[in-house]
Amino acid sequence: MKIEPTHIKNVFVIKPLVREDERGFFMETHREDILEQAGVSFRCVQANHSLSTKKNTVRGLHFQYDPPMAKIMRVTRGRAFLVAVDIRKGSPTLGKWFGVEASEENKIQLYAPAGFARGFQTLEDMTEIQYLTSGLYNKEGEAEISWLDSEINIDWPIKDSPILSDRSGKAPSLSDWLNRPEADTFFFASE
């Protein structure tokens, strides 16, 4: 398993070692010890699985502030563009994003710590995403910012006619989120 840093500190691309033969493949999808060696402290307490039946489905940009939640995302069927956005007040990379195409073929995973909003856009019909999370889901402590926020300006692979939930279509901007008292949960502390 290779852990590769991105241009945003503490956001990593995880590339599992895949052993393939005529029967198929085997890979380790999560190794706490290898993550710790790369400086990532991540304890998984919940696993989630989503299916998007249509290409160009956009989910996110979601995050949870109570309790704050880190996530590892991977595609187990189809292809998707996975995104992480820094939403930590005071961070030198506040509002910056990282995106990567992940698929069942390349088996790339994306890790982002608490204080990042995450989302994805499906690039094929019938795309499945699985998440490992460091916090238990709390409906009262979750939030979302607009996937199309002009301040963030994500370069989504498909530009037209996304398939969105009503909630995602009405999500506030990053600036609106930063003006909420809950945003103080993610204050950046210099290291």
Please tell me about this protein's structure.
The protein is mainly beta and 191 residues long. The chain has a single domain (2-186), classed as Jelly Rolls (Sandwich), CATH 2.60.120.10. It has 3 helices and 13 strands; from the N terminus they run ββββαβββββββββαα. The protein has helices at residues 32-37, 166-169, 174-178; strands spanning 2-5, 12-15, 18-21, 24-27, 46-52, 58-64, 71-77, 79-86, 97-103, 109-112, 116-122, 127-133, 142-144. The strands form 3 sheets. It has a 6-stranded antiparallel sheet, with no helix packed on it. A 5-stranded antiparallel sheet has the order 9-8-11-6-13, with no helix packed on it. A two-stranded antiparallel ribbon has the order 3-4. Strand 1 and strand 2 form a beta hairpin. The longest helix has 6 residues, at 32-37. It is globular. The model has no long low-confidence stretch (mean pLDDT 93).
